[in-house]
Amino acid sequence: MRILVTGGAGFIGRPTVERLVADGHLVTVVDLVRPDARAGEAAPLSGARLVVGDVRDDHTLAPAFRGADVVVHLAAKVGLGVDLDDIVDYVSANDLGTATVLRAAHRTGVGRVVFASSMVVYGEGAYDCPEHGRVGPGPRRTADLEAGVFDPRCPRCDAVLVPAVVTEDAPLDPRNVYASTKVHGEHLLRAWARETSGGAFALRFHNVYGPGMPRDTPYAGVASLFRSALAAGQAPRVFEDGGQRRDFVHVEDVARAVVAASTADAGPGLVVPLNVGSGAVTTVGGLAEALADTLDGPAPVVTGEFRVGDVRHVTASSDRAAQVLGWSAQIGLRAGLATC
């Protein structure tokens, strides 16, 4: 097949393109080739045609889309944003970028799209109350956080909630600008699918780590921040009590999921959301300890610091991806960290 990959020179895009090329597909990459989207100097893409340009630019997209069977849309401004001064950049890069890609798909008759969404669309993860069952938590209280009570409370009885895993039918609750653009991207994808009878997958990536992950930027994930601290001989600083639950999935496993989705059929007029995670729950403190051990660095420091708006727990089931794509993660955390 002829596959167009936006953001194909980036952290997730590069291993995805390598796998697609190895499978015999004809791959075109559209990428700005920004230095803040990868760690260090990236090797040239091998076996793929590279178009350097912005996905918001019709003149860049028109020739790149010619003859494509599938578009894999990975290009995005990533991270959570530092403050609201970032809002215009995020909306322009992600919302306008996605809209321009989908318009180009419509104009050129491309009927299959794979969209890079994120687990941040859920906001807080799923929680159970011992008395009331599954409930949606309200905002955490500053007084609780100051007292070291970091888990949210039941909005009905005030009991401390127990975290559970999220499935794709959970309500979407974006908590920051980046998350909002990913939710809007999924909505644009649904509008495109209805109007064109095209089929799409919205892959909700969990915390992706691995070789080539961006470092030392305000948009870096916690794995990259810890890795950067250890590379400088400093102890990773862990907020709260380190018990925040996450799912860290290796970039090669994510690339395999993207490749599987690009060759699968979502069905006409359908957008299929799929969680893409390792299936293993890891605490933020546990990640810091594993990284320090792997890199023989100083032990993490649990600071007790907090940010009121931070998500406490978010982990999700990837069972649906296994059912639909025949995909599951293969790389365990310790083995994956050794590749960083």
Helical percentage: 25-40%
H/I helix tally = 10
Strand segment count:
16
Low-confidence stretches: none
Overall average pLDDT: 92
User: Based on the structure, what is the oligomeric state of the protein chains?
Assistant: single chain
* Biggest sheet details: 7 strands, parallel
Separation of the first and last Cα atoms:
32 Å
Q: Classify the secondary structure makeup into a structural class.
A: alpha/beta
Q: List the strand order in the largest sheet.
A: 3-2-1-4-5-9-14
Structural Rg: 20 Å
Shape: globular
β-strand percent reads 15-25%
Order of helices and strands: EHEEHEHEEEHEHEEHEEEHEEHEHH
What does this structure look like?
With 340 residues, the protein is α/β, with parallel strands linked by helices. The chain is built from ten helices and 16 strands. 32% of the residues lie in helices and 19% in strands. The protein has a seven-stranded parallel β-sheet with strand order 3-2-1-4-5-9-14, with helices on both faces. It has a three-stranded antiparallel β-sheet with strand order 7-6-8, with no helix packed on it. Strand 6 and strand 7 (133-135) form a beta hairpin. It starts with a strand and ends with a helix.
Question: How would you briefly describe this protein structure?
Answer:
The chain is α/β, with parallel strands linked by helices.
Write the layout of secondary structure elements.
Elements: E1 2-6, H1 13-22, E2 26-31, E3 49-52, H2 58-65, E4 70-73, H3 87-108, E5 112-118, E6 126-129, E7 133-135, H4 142-146, E8 162-164, H5 177-196, E9 199-205, E10 207-209, H6 222-231, E11 237-238, E12 245-246, E13 248-250, H7 251-262, E14 271-276, E15 282-283, H8 284-294, E16 301-302, H9 319-325, H10 333-337
Parallel strand pairs: 1-2, 1-4, 2-3, 4-5, 5-9, 9-14, 10-13, 11-16
Antiparallel strand pairs: 6-7, 6-8, 12-15
Helix pairs in contact: 1-7, 2-3, 3-5, 6-8
